[in-house]
């Protein structure tokens, strides 16, 4: 990270900086790890946060008035759609950008032709109004796979969208059957970072299920929100889809930053990059310049019935990285994961504090910051810093045995297991940012502490997933 990129953040008070006075509400018992994160001051206004709801722009170009008109009579219509399974998906081709040969299709949901809910925006708005969004989302996925399987020449890859608001729903028996009963293609489940930020544990469970059955994952709209870049190393999707607005401003600093970050992740993980919204020859040139491998858009064809899709390259599915079952749900604790890689060392409370200051100093804008702790006193002493960081970071999460009322609204929280006074304490702090990745884990008592500090990206991502999967579903 360049010096000018580092936030000017007052560091936590520690045993190494006694000049900083920090009031505490009550005496805390001695701890190897409490020390040392007690306060991070901020004078920033709360950053804006994307709501974990349906984004109207995600569907069609219908107006708000259209949706309002349809929703009034859409409740009965959505009941009929679900009862009759009356979703007829269309498909849009995805092509390899140099040969322009098709490699797969993306399924796009449509309601019954001629009905008030034919267009996807009205269809999903009606489902939300009727409280049936989860059922509609599942039906859309089922119908996409059913229709693709029935094609004269099934495509090698079928991209299916997952609605972030309902990723905590279990896979239906029909969907599991379609995924596991020898499908003639690989499915790629496509979702946005909003799903992870709103229901991280649920999305990791879903990702694990998809990988266990040999299918792949895609992260959509990358570049639309800084959070998507921060989550890329944690998700490690097979496909990264660039937000279509990047093509419209290919030389803008933000576009160049996103393209560089995505290309770095692709080089490290083997992910494929897809550019969306390619409509002209200029868009195609821009997509290639941004490092995209594949693309989709009206230049190659709009949504159409599966029978009108050209046969895809037979080896396209094999181009995607093989599935990795177990990646998203690692077992054990953060310290155990670090120790298994030979990262643990003996130390002192002061050494842990120094490393903690180093890690937190780098937690700038757009970072994912995660913390876990088995000691309530330690967790309470960390809360002011986590609250301060939540005004700057993309996502802050905490798993600890403290009362929920003590945790600020911008910190994603789950109660965690607690140690008793005589037991061994364990804690961890993870920072995942576009330019910096680190994890610090500790285990022991004040007289016998051990800790691990690693900046190995793969190990840090695994430790982050251990914490994320404990957050609310």
Automatic annotation (TrEMBL):
InterPro entries given in the database record: Cyclic-di-GMP_PDE-like (IPR050706), EAL_dom (IPR001633), EAL_sf (IPR035919)
SUPFAM superfamilies noted in UniProt: EAL domain-like
Residue span(s) of domain EAL: 71-317
PANTHER family for the chain: CYCLIC DI-GMP PHOSPHODIESTERASE PDEF, SIGNALING PROTEIN
Protein name: EAL domain-containing protein
Biological source species: Dactylosporangium darangshiense
Lineage: Bacteria, Bacillati, Actinomycetota, Actinomycetes, Micromonosporales
